[in-house]
Design brief:
- The protein has twelve helices and nine strands.
- The strands form two sheets. Strands 1-4-5-9-8-7-6 form a seven-stranded mixed sheet, sandwiched between helices.
- The N and C termini lie far apart (83 Å).
- The structure holds phenylalanine.
- Phenylalanine binds next to strand 8 and strand 9.
Length: 338
């Protein structure tokens, strides 16, 4: 390789290295390597003086051009690395964009609150499937095949004896099947009924179920527990009223009402209680001995209470919402207001 060729290949290699430099430090190192006192270029330049006089001008010119090319390249690369093109460009004078803040759905908040209330009373959380079998939804709950609750009008039947659970009472059975007494659980979740949808009915809604079984559990325990829940949900002044009722799986059975949190019975035509002073809330009772027998608990030894309550109804009262569909159709314009 003659000197001109040496210069050309040196220049080519150095330019490639400079183009690949990724920060200012590397550019500086390359400057020392290719233009510094001990660089190959300086070495060649030092040798030119000893070359034949006829070749010296051409060689000197070529070496000078290489030096200039490398200097230009180093400068250009340093400039490019420092330029703001390497940072995101944005207009700092524009107003900021507010991040969309998520929040819990009002039903999810109610569920969290109920879990807290019942944890505070020593209840554990239990869960069960929404796709159930007839046994857990009906038979084990003392609801035989000819009972009207099993009517096609009320229940979404699937194939193979399966259905969408019509209440969370299924979880009572699932818990007792798996756990020897005592048990003290609550379960919260979705249930389904084949109902025409209107402002107060929906084919899907949520319930909380409570179950407490031990030796010597009495109706007084049930009343105290429901009263405690009512006060914590709707305020300290809330009173509870129990009315006789019937459920196949409790005996005796009651429906219970909370005193109206809006008017406390004082306002005729109140939009929450319609002036009656009471809001009908849910069902409850002492676990029927037939249910204990179905799960293998001895009804001579154990007693217990159970209650079930719709959550949408509570949320509607608390937030003054008059249409149950709003909780379930996911319209953010509604949910953001609660
Ligand atoms: N499962 C009943 C319902 O959905 C409510 C209930 C639960 C009643 C527990 C008594 C005991 O209507």
């Amino acid at each position: 390789m003659n000197t001109l060729e040496q210069l050309a290949s040196l220049q080519q290699a150095a330019l490639a290295e400079i183009a690949a430099a990724s920060d200012a430090t590397q550019v500086d190192e390359l400057r020392v390597k290719h233009l510094g006192r001990r660089s190959q270029l300086r070495l060649i330049m030092g040798q030119i003086g000893a070359m034949p006089a006829t070749e010296r001008p051409a060689l000197g010119k070529a070496a000078g051009q290489t030096q200039q090319a490398l200097q230009d390249a180093l400068e250009a690369r340093a400039g490019a690395l420092a330029s703001p093109a390497h940072e995101p460009t944005f207009d700092v004078t524009l107003p900021g964009r507010r991040p969309a803040m998520g929040r819990l759905h009002p039903l999810a908040r109610l569920i969290d609150e109920l879990v807290d209330i019942f944890r505070g009373m020593g209840f554990e959380l239990a869960d069960g499937p929404e796709v159930e079998d007839e046994y857990h939804n009906f038979d084990a709950l003392n609801t035989p095949a000819d009972h009207p609750a099993r009517d096609l009008h009320d229940t979404f039947y699937l194939t193979d004896g399966l259905l969408l659970r019509t209440h969370t009472s299924t979880v009572q059975i699932r818990v007792m099947e798996q756990t020897p007494p005592p048990v003290r659980v609550v379960s919260l979740g979705r249930v389904y009924r084949k109902e025409a949808v209107d402002a107060t009915h929906h084919y899907a809604f949520h319930q909380i179920e409570g179950l407490y079984v031990d030796r010597g559990v009495s109706f007084a325990d049930l009343k105290g527990t429901i009263e405690m829940m009512g006060r914590q949900l709707l305020g300290d002044r809330t009173r509870v009223r129990f009315r006789p009722h019937f459920f196949p799986f409790t005996e005796p059975s009651v429906e219970y009402d909370f005193s109206c949190s809006l008017c406390d019975g004082g306002v005729p035509g109140c939009r929450v209680c319609k002036g009656t002073g009471w809001i009908e809330i849910a069902g409850a009772g002492m676990v029927d001995p037939a249910v204990f027998t179905a799960v293998g608990y001895d009804p001579e030894v154990y007693t217990g209470f159970a209650f079930g309550m719709g959550l949408e109804r509570i949320a509607m009262i608390r937030h003054g919402v008059d249409d149950i569909r709003l909780f379930l159709d996911g319209d953010l314009r509604f949910i953001r207001q609660l």
